[in-house]
Each structure stands twice: as structure tokens, then as C-alpha cells.
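Changelog note: in this version the structure field was regenerated for every chain. One regenerated record is shown below for reference.
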Amino acid sequence: MNRITVYERANFEGLNREFTCDVPDLHELDFGNCIASLKVVGQPWIAYTEPKYEGEPHVFEEGEYASVEQPNSFSALRLVHHDLGDPQIILYERPNFQGACKVVTEETNLAYGYFNDRVASHVVQRGVWLLYQHPGRGGWHCLAWPGERLADYGPELNFQSRLSHLRPLQPGQPL
């Protein structure tokens, strides 16, 4: 079973709640903006800083997180239901899927190649991807979902062709 257990204090201390399905508003369950540590079993979860899956997304793959990067800031939780096996995304040099393209199937640091800071659109074939503005998983990031066809990074992502690193989410092993 896929689940996330959230704790109000670091190191898995204090009040806790366990969830096995999406939670659009943690405030309704008296657990909004109070998560400081968590444990994930199975598929990844995404914690959002605003209710109804809005705001900045934070991805938590299977494992234990004794402290989270932005404690006391999560207002919604979403389980990743998508098949994460055999991921694939196609990156395009120009908007509207034009120019040179690159097929990516694994974590890739674009900083050392032609496509660094040149990607302007993409098509997600399979998997869920994290796209980062800077090399080494740095800077602003966003999620790219299966079937997503993002025609222009400028107005839609405000990336301005600044993609430098990307990685697919890893599937968990539910009990």
C-alpha cells in the first residue's frame, strides 16, 4: 500500500497522520502548515504549499525524511498514481516543438552539452519528470506529467529556455 506519514516536528516526533490517498486541503484535517518530517512507502508523493495542489510542489520519493526543506509550509498532498517505469521525455530547442530535439530516458545534467539553457518546449512520453533551472538539481523546478505537451517555456513556465537538469521520478515498492 502506498502511504505517507507526516509528523509535526523533525525526526518523526510529535503528532502524526498517515494518508493513503490525495489530500487537497490539510487545513480541513487540522494538519495544514505543520509538517516537519515524513516517511513515504511506495509511490512518490507531492506536497504543495497551497491547498488544492497549488503553489510550489515538493517531491518526496520512497524513504524517510527526518527534516523537510521548508517545514510548516505544506497545505496539500498528492500521491503520484502514474506508471513511472520506462520514462521518456523529448526536449526541443525552440518553442512549438521545433528545432533540434533530444530524447531523454534517465536523469540528465544538460550543463555539459548542446541543450544546456536551450530547451524551449517538451513532450512527456512516459513517466513524471522534475525539470530544474540549474545543473545538479538546482534552482527553480517544476513537474512535467505524462502526456504533457508544453509548447513554450517562456510564458508557460517562465523558464526562458533555462533548463539545465532533469530527472524522472522513481517508482516505489509498496508493501
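Spot check on this record: Residues 153-157 form the longest helix (5 residues). The CA atoms of residues 63 and 136 lie 21 Å apart.
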